[in-house]
Amino acid sequence: MAIQVEVKSNGFSLNDRLFDYVSTKAGKLDRYIQGADEVRVELTYAKTARMASDRFVAQITLSGKRMLLRSEERSDDANAAFDAALDKIQRRIARYKGKRYRGRGDSLSMGEAAMEIIEEEIAAEMAEELAAEAEPVIARRKKFTLFPMDEFEAVEQSKLLGHDNFFIFFNMDTNSVNVLYTRRDGTYGLIDTEMA
Known about the structure:
The protein is α/β, with parallel strands linked by helices.
């Protein structure tokens, strides 16, 4: 049974050449692992990315019976982002299978080879746990001057400034700091803060 491939794009139109390239490459993932039923590829163009090299996001999700593997990569080109995500998912497949391909003549017994693979997996898991436990690093700090305004002025200001995702302002009606954000359906949401 061939693997089912689903390709979606967000924020840009997917041309036929890119669609064929992505679906062909993603369709070959079942060669690396048995039991894979579906692969979903989502290509997103984020015009609001801080860096131009992060504008295209490729996310690959491989699912099957009792299996779910995912990878995500960013680049300034959709093809490059997809290729990087494909490389990452192939590495994750190899890790999931727990196999390592060895050349001939490595002179290790099956027990020694199995023990080496187990040690590598334990070391990788410990490294992931340490990275997850590490405190977050604040890479950038900004200061904003909050001007008193009402909700409707805040909507206009966010449009004028090009703040598509969120806008922070001092609400003169409630005398509190508010966050105005754009919802997925195009409407606005408002977070009204208060001191505890």
